[in-house]
Amino acid sequence: MTEPSWLTETRTAYDTVAVDYARLLPEVVEPPLDRAVLTAFAETVGPGRPVLEVGSGTGRVTAHLRRLGLDIAGVDLSPGMVAVARRAHPELRFDVGSMSELTAPDASLAGLVSWYSVIHLPPELLPEVFAGFRRVLAPGGHLLLAVKAGDRLDRREQAYGHCVAFDVHWLPPERLAAQLAAAGLPVRATLVREPVGAERQPQAFLLAERPTG
């Protein structure tokens, strides 16, 4: 079966930029509101409970959440990014994998983080991916989703000093909330902030939960 072109492009692009991505973004450099969202998520999940970051890249957010007390691992589509993450954070586990085919057992996670990773998926795939997120979350488990807010396709041909080709989708928070609710992950809080620095669009953060019972 032929792999979808968007998947091949995304993997190839991040394999290409992995080393320079880590050099240019060596630690969490998110604005204060973004870091506050990460802190709120960590405190909501609680220390020592199993969490997975999907689309973990070079592991910088994964490592930040570990410092906040979470028992967290990462999974990423790009072998290049995973290799960088393993070198930078040998104390953490990073695997190559797809968020659309999570291997975690059913109801095994207290938390799931998607920090600007679903933006690379064709929007029509999101309901299926969100259903997979619900499957691996235990009842009472929490999801943190970060996206570029809007409703357009942004085709990228340059990134981190390299010529690449991949898609970034700006996503409407209201539509995401409806899709998450339909997947059994009602949204408990949404934060939308205005662009900071070189950003070209607002950023949105959604906190959802798999209900108990």
Protein described:
The chain is α/β, with parallel strands linked by helices. The protein contains 6 helices and 9 strands; from the N terminus they run ααβαβαββαβββαββ. Strands 3-2-1-4-5-9-8 form a 7-stranded mixed β-sheet, sandwiched between helices. The chain has a two-stranded antiparallel sheet with strand order 6-7. α1 packs parallel to α4 and α5 packs across α6. It starts with a helix and ends with a strand.
Derived structural class: alpha/beta
Low-pLDDT runs of 5+ residues are none
Strand fraction: 25-35%
What is Rg? 16 Å
The helical percent reads 25-40%
Count of DSSP strands? 9
Mean pLDDT: 94
Number of helices: 6
Instruction: Report the order of strands and helices.
Output: HHEHEHEEHEEEHEE
The coarse overall form would be globular
> Strand order within the widest sheet?
3-2-1-4-5-9-8
Q: Mind summarizing the main beta sheet?
A: 7 strands, mixed
Distance between the termini: 39 Å
Task: Indicate the topology.
Blueprint: H1 5-24, H2 32-45, E1 50-54, H3 60-67, E2 71-76, H4 79-88, E3 94-96, E4 109-115, H5 126-136, E5 137-148, E6 152-159, E7 162-170, H6 173-182, E8 187-193, E9 203-209
Parallel strand pairs: 1-2, 1-4, 2-3, 4-5
Antiparallel strand pairs: 5-9, 6-7, 8-9
Helix pairs in contact: 1-4, 5-6
Quick structural gist:
The protein is α/β, with parallel strands linked by helices.
